[in-house]
Write a structure and sequence with these properties.
Blueprint (H helix, E strand, L loop, with lengths): L6 H8 L5 E4 L9 H8 L7 E8 L4 E7 L6 H8 L4 E3 L5 H5 L16 E5 L8 E7 L2 E5 L1 H8 L2 E3 L8
Parallel strand pairs: 3-5, 5-8
Antiparallel strand pairs: 1-7, 2-3, 2-4, 6-7
InterPro entries: Prolyl-tRNA_editing_YbaK/EbsC, YbaK/aa-tRNA-synt-asso_dom_sf, YbaK/aa-tRNA-synth-assoc-dom
EC number: 4.2.-.-
Keywords: Lyase, Protein biosynthesis
């Protein structure tokens, strides 16, 4: 598989942030995150997914959570300072972020949206997020990602999942 640099990787390079690129075989379609962890031989708790929501005031908020967990929308809204949040429609992901479903990275979206990362990242030495393309992930230190995108960190997953 060609390991061409993605926009997310170029952003990390420009910021002098150390990362490891990982790629896995895919037919070009989104792969469940738990399967990504399996394909890469990485503990599932280290692989995170990027979810895009919209708040009551219509602004977009991004949440980055472990792939095996489910977003707790009440906790997420509280962490984002919103009354409520709801997932955007899959058909709107590309228009809003510039990425496609299954390849949405918290770095390099069309605009840097308010982002909240689940607090479970704090217990990890490194975490993986999408590199902005299906079949590619980047592994980096959680604090580097938090600092780079100006993310908040909070408990945002359903109870018993982190």
């Amino acid at each position: 598989m060609a390991n061409a640099k993605t926009n997310a990787m170029r952003i990390l390079d420009r910021a002098n942030i150390k990362y490891t690129a990982h790629s896995y075989e895919t037919d070009g379609l989104a792969v469940p995150g738990t399967e990504v962890a399996q394909k890469l031989g990485i503990p599932v708790r280290k692989v995170f997914k990027t979810l895009v929501t919209q708040g009551a005031d219509r602004r977009y908020i991004v949440f980055v959570i472990p792939v095996a967990c489910e977003l707790d929308v009440k906790k997420a809204a509280r962490a984002a300072g919103e009354k409520n949040v709801e997932m955007i429609h899959v058909k709107d992901i590309s228009k809003v972020t510039g990425y496609i479903r299954g390849g949405c990275s918290p770095m390099g979206m069309k605009k840097q949206f308010h982002t909240v990362i689940d607090e479970s990242c704090r217990a990890l030495d490194t975490m993986l997020v999408s590199a902005g393309k299906i079949g590619q992930q980047v592994e980096l230190m959680p604090q580097d990602l938090i600092t780079l995108i100006g993310a908040d960190v909070a408990d945002i997953v359903k109870q018993g999942q982190n």
